[in-house]
Amino acid sequence: MPELAQRALEACVEYEHCAAEVTRLTSAIGQVECPRETHDDVVDGKFVPGTPSCFQRVRTEMRPTGPLPDDGPRPVNLAEIGTLVADCPECSRLVNLIGERRGMRQRFGKAKRAIRHLGKKGPSAEADFFDLARDEMHRAQALHGRRYSTLHEGFGVLVEEGAELFEIVRQKRDERDPGHLLIELLQIAAVAGKTAFSVGAMAALDMPCTLKERAR
Questions:
Q1: Is residue 190 assigned to a domain?
Q2: Are residues 14 and 100 in the same domain?
C-alpha cells in the first residue's frame, strides 16, 4: 500500500478505536457504585438526603496553589483524588477509569488531527478512496468475519452506517468533521463491498450482459 494511503488508514483505524474506547469507558464509569453512597429518599414523609460517594466527597476539596497566601486555592487534581479515595476500591477504580478516558480522548484528538492533516494534502492517487475502502473492508472482515449470513444482515449494517452518516448530513457544513465524514463513507463502501461478496453479487461480472446494460 502506498505510504500516504497507509497513514490515512492507520489514522482512521486509530480514530475508530479511540471513539469506541471512549464510549466503553464512559459506560464503565457510569456503572461504578461506591458502597458508601446512598441516594436521596423520603421516609415517613420527610426528605432524607443521601450520602455522597467517596469520589464526590473529595472532588470538591481545595488545595493551595502555591506556598504564599495570595496564591489562592485550586481544586484537587485526579492524582490527589486517587490518594484520598485509596481506601475505597470502587472509587479507586473510578479514578483509574477517568484517567484512562482522558488518555483515550487525547489519542482520539490526535487521530482526528492526523486525518484532517492528511485530508489537506488533496486528492492523490496514493490515497485513492477506493484503495482505502478496500483496506477498510479487509480490516472489518478480519474483525467480524469475511461474510454476512444473508443479504438482510448486510442491508441492516448498511442502514446503521447510513444513519450515522445522516447525523453528519444534518450538521451545518462548517460544523462537519472531515475525518469523521471520511470514516463513515469508507465504512459504507466497505460494508457494500462485503455484502456484494457475501451474497454472490460479484458473479454478475461473469454474465453475458454488462453492468452498464443492466443499469439502463
A1: yes
A2: yes
Angle at 199 between CA 194 and CA 204, to 5 degrees: 100
Q: Where does 50-177 have alpha helices with state H? A: 54-58, 78-84, 89-119, 129-144, 151-169
Cα separation, 118 vs 51, whole angstroms: 50
Domain residue limits at 92 = 1-123
Looking at the DSSP assignment, which residues form a beta bridge with residue 197? none
How does pLDDT run across 116-160, given as a tens digit for each residue? 776 655 555 445 678 778 888 888 888 788 888 899 999 999 999
Beta bridge partners of 42: 47
Considering the domain architecture, whether residues 9 and 109 belong to the same structural domain is answered as yes
> Considering its fold, how many domains does the chain have in total?
2
CB atoms within 10 A of CB 177: 15
Question: With contact defined as beta carbons under 8 Å apart, do 148 and 194 qualify?
Answer: yes
Q: What is the pTM of this model?
A: 0.57
63 touches 76 (CB < 8 A): yes
212 within some domain: no
The SS3 assignment for 9 reads helix
Residues in the chain: 216
Long-range CB contacts (within 8 A, 24+) of 51-59: 53/88, 53/90, 53/91, 54/84, 54/85, 54/87, 54/88, 54/91, 55/81, 55/85, 55/88, 55/91, 55/94, 55/95, 58/84, 58/85
